[in-house]
Fold:
Amino acid sequence: MALKVYADRMSQPSRAVLIFCKINGIDVEEIRVDILKNKQYSPEYKAINPMRRVPAIVDGRFKLFESHAILIYICCAFPGVASHWYPSDLFKRSKIHSVLDWHHSNLRRGTVGLVFNTILAPLNGFPSNPQAAKEGEKLLTRSLSKLEDFWLKDGRFLVGSSQPSIADISLVCEIMQLELLSEEDHDRILSPYKKVVQWIEDTKSATAPHFDEVHGILFKAQKRFRERMATESVKNEVKSKL
Amino acid sequence: MAVKVYGDRMSQPSRAVLIFCKINGIDFEEILVDISKNQQLSPEYKAINPMYQVPAIVDGRFTLFESHAILIYICCAFPGVASHWYPSDLTKRAKIHSVLDWHHSNLRRGSAGLVFNTLLAQLDCHQSYPQVVNQAEGILLRSLSRLENFWLKDGRFLVGGSQPSIADISLVCEIMQLELLSEKERDRILSPFKKVVQWIEDTKIATAPYFDEVHGVLFKAQKRFRERIKTQSNLKAKL
Structure:
């Protein structure tokens, strides 16, 4: 029986789980939970994940949510998964746990704070919160700095590894959400961090062609958002001249 | 060689690691990193944890931070630790991972946000941001609701456990930080959640006498804060 993965490819942790399953040839049935249409609030989905978030999996009778827990579960439950994704060595594994834990309150919180308050909220009719966006960017920049100077200091991949682990997929999918910003903001924020930029490329290569395929929806959204923002700014310019 | 545990008993995750080590008879050396004196920002501590946070451990040449990673490491590295703390059964273990992950952006975020901003505002050393406090309380209440109705629905302990796991110690230590609020506030927030209140007691009992011993510093601070607020409000009443 295929593993059911409930996901929305606009969600960073959903993408991480999907890419990981595909690169490891896991037999998966992807079930879309459209968060823009609030499908995560349906009674059917509440029965899968009462926290009403994506992703979640159902493996036979076993249900699980929280992407890091899911990634670890897949590594342990499916024998074909190569060991570098979640090494059995206790020290390496612990370091992977520590960066996955650090992620929640640092990279993720910063990225979500910035992207939601800069792009997603205004374009979807929610009130804008520039203060929250500013704080998000500050936290994001501190997190990128820690990635550059610490988490990537000893190897091509996180925590000194020469091969990717589940932590690389999770954190890189988070950073990819910055593609929803304007090109200018995206480059301004990321370009100072050379190791981070290289690591993103290395992770993409290591999970090709699935990384790009799963990110297809994000890039379509990026195109729509950037066109819309360009239209908005032309309108504002015209208004200011009248 | 003893494991070195760098912590501050005012820090919720530090307490979780200390209680866990004590209840399992781990040979460790506790090294205080006093966050009220910003000792976590010292160059010596930066060499242990470049994120400048507590707790961290040093086991021989191995350094580790993030309390959940530390708790899991101790379960795996020390053979005397009973299996209920971190069961080897894959599905039980996965459920423990999921509540530990959920904790970061929910219970911890709500509780730490509320306590930090309430205390700072009350002690007049920080501008009061009622919106921040309200938002944090909202997250905390939702999280307590999830604990009451989901995480504790199938057993005395989290994720249906009849015995405690590392997740119980971690999350209960977080909720204990609410002891720093006024008695009225703490009771207002917690008392609607009967299962949660019982679970806190069950976890204390399961880790006695270390739970109360490690929380000693917190209760001393509670006494000081509550007296200070009482003095301030008496003064204000006279003006």
Observations:
- The CA atoms of residues 146 and 152 of chain B lie 8 Å apart.
- Chain B has ten helices and four strands.
